[in-house]
Amino acid sequence: MVARRDEVKINLLAPDSNMSNLACMKISSYHKAKGDEVTFNFPLQPADYTYASILFSWTPDPYANMIGGSKYPQIFLPDDINKCFPDYSLYPNLDYSLGYTYRACPRKCWFCVVPLQCQDKTHYSISTFHNPKFKKICLMNNNTLADP
After folding, report:
1. Pairing of strands 37-40, 96-99
2. Which residues contact 78 (CB under 8 A, 6 or more apart)?
């Protein structure tokens, strides 16, 4: 008999944007698949573990066990989380699918954080993130024209 894992309370924070946060959506899917309880943008919510995705360098870091995002280009989602289908329920008013088909960019613009981030040159199918209930897709590709 396999011992039952206790439910873990997970809190996700995306404090510096009103736009949908793909990393939070994937982390949510990962933890919900494990049976964990996930809350979003409730910094005072008691949680066993808190993730924060910070986009802008001027955003102060909230208390979190794990902080990542564009502000921290050296921190990546683990593959088992990054491969998760996004949890669109975090954004109930969202009316489009969100994801990447190509993440890399060959340019090295001095102002851009992308060269410091993952330079994954793999082409991904939209099926890895497309929710058929949506008629629109928002590609977050860093340079679609560089996708062979």
Report:
1. unpaired
2. none
CB 13 within 8 A of CB 53: yes
Q: Which helix (H) or strand (E) holds 19?
A: none
Among all chains, which residue has been given the structure tokens 């902080």? 67
| Domain termination site, one of 63, 86, 109 | 86
Residue 5 predicted with pLDDT over 80: no
If one counts the domains in the chain, the total is 2
Residue-wise pLDDT for 89-138, tens only, equals 999 999 999 999 988 888 888 888 887 776 788 899 999 999 999 999 99
Block residue for tokens 């008999």: 1
Domain that holds residue 41: 1-86
**Which residues does 101 contact at the CB level (< 8 Å), separation at least 6?**
123, 124, 125, 126, 139, 141, 144, 147
Average of per-residue pLDDT values in the chain? 89
Question: What ranges in the chain are assigned the alpha helix state H?
Answer: 22-33, 79-82
Per the listing, tokens 């049976």 go with 35
Considering only the C-alpha atoms of the chain, give the largest distance between any 2 of them, rounded to a whole number of Å. 56
Same domain, yes or no: 52 and 72: yes
Which of 129, 26, 78, 94 lies closest to 12, judged by CA?
Answer: 26
Q: How far apart are CA 118 and CA 15, in angstroms?
A: 23
